[in-house]
Amino acid sequence: MATIQIPDALLVKNYIAGDENALAVLIKRHQSKIYGFIYSKMPDRDVADDVFQDTFIKVIKTLKSNSYNEEGKFLPWVMRIAHNLIVDHYRKNKKMPMLRETEEFSIFSILTDTSLNAESRIITDVIEKDLQKIVQELPPDQRDVLMMRIYQDLSFNEIADLTGVSINTALGRMRYALMNLRKVIDKNQIILTN
Amino acid sequence: MAKLYSKRTLATTKMLPKRETINFILNFSKALKVVKASNMNFEIIAN
């Protein structure tokens, strides 16, 4: 027995008139083509489902607000909406790409925790404390230049101005400060690496 | 009889959206009411 298929145009008309069942028939009739089309452009089932849902939300809103003009082309119209939403999706994702972990791709290959672990943190603390102690042992003029240069990030010009000496003296003091630091470190065999 | 070396295609299942997605769309359709007032459209969603 041949089954009589109600044309899309009539179903749309019925739906606009308030027949909710007409929409179910339309979806059932075209879901495979529409979903297949979306999935061919974005092979992720969850995303494809989202776009499918958004497509029909748009269809429903257009039909219910009576802004759809029937030209007997329901499916191409829905396909065009889906296509526009796919374009929108990629445009949005270009700005903020979404990465999903797969067997071949691990999210941790691009995402790393750069903060130190507990052990490294303790070692860094100890090194800093040791270094501060050694710096305190330096002659005051050398220590001042070193502190201003390293900790306060001043230029040698500024250091020269602040300490009231020439820039060459400031440079020389820095040089002696570093030499003295190295000497103390070598002498006491202090390890300052993490 | 000649042996067939071609494999049967596995991708015969139709691609279909999830059941929940369809249900959501149908429920959304039932809940949505668009009211036209002059040149404006108001969307009312009944919960």
TrEMBL record, chain A:
<protein>
    <submittedName>
        <fullName>RNA polymerase subunit sigma-24</fullName>
    </submittedName>
</protein>
<keyword id="KW-0804">Transcription</keyword>
<dbReference type="Pfam" id="PF04542">
    <property type="entry name" value="Sigma70_r2"/>
</dbReference>
<keyword id="KW-0731">Sigma factor</keyword>
<dbReference type="GO" id="GO:0006352">
    <property type="term" value="P:DNA-templated transcription initiation"/>
</dbReference>
<dbReference type="InterPro" id="IPR013324">
    <property type="entry name" value="RNA_pol_sigma_r3/r4-like"/>
</dbReference>
<keyword id="KW-0238">DNA-binding</keyword>
<dbReference type="InterPro" id="IPR036388">
    <property type="entry name" value="WH-like_DNA-bd_sf"/>
</dbReference>
<comment type="similarity">
    <text>Belongs to the sigma-70 factor family. ECF subfamily.</text>
</comment>
<keyword id="KW-0805">Transcription regulation</keyword>
<dbReference type="InterPro" id="IPR007627">
    <property type="entry name" value="RNA_pol_sigma70_r2"/>
</dbReference>
<dbReference type="InterPro" id="IPR013325">
    <property type="entry name" value="RNA_pol_sigma_r2"/>
</dbReference>
<dbReference type="InterPro" id="IPR014284">
    <property type="entry name" value="RNA_pol_sigma-70_dom"/>
</dbReference>
<feature type="domain" description="RNA polymerase sigma factor 70 region 4 type 2">
    <location>
        <begin position="130"/>
        <end position="169"/>
    </location>
</feature>
<feature type="domain" description="RNA polymerase sigma-70 region 2">
    <location>
        <begin position="26"/>
        <end position="95"/>
    </location>
</feature>
<dbReference type="GO" id="GO:0003677">
    <property type="term" value="F:DNA binding"/>
</dbReference>
<dbReference type="InterPro" id="IPR013249">
    <property type="entry name" value="RNA_pol_sigma70_r4_t2"/>
</dbReference>
<dbReference type="InterPro" id="IPR039425">
    <property type="entry name" value="RNA_pol_sigma-70-like"/>
</dbReference>
<dbReference type="GO" id="GO:0016987">
    <property type="term" value="F:sigma factor activity"/>
</dbReference>
<dbReference type="Pfam" id="PF08281">
    <property type="entry name" value="Sigma70_r4_2"/>
</dbReference>
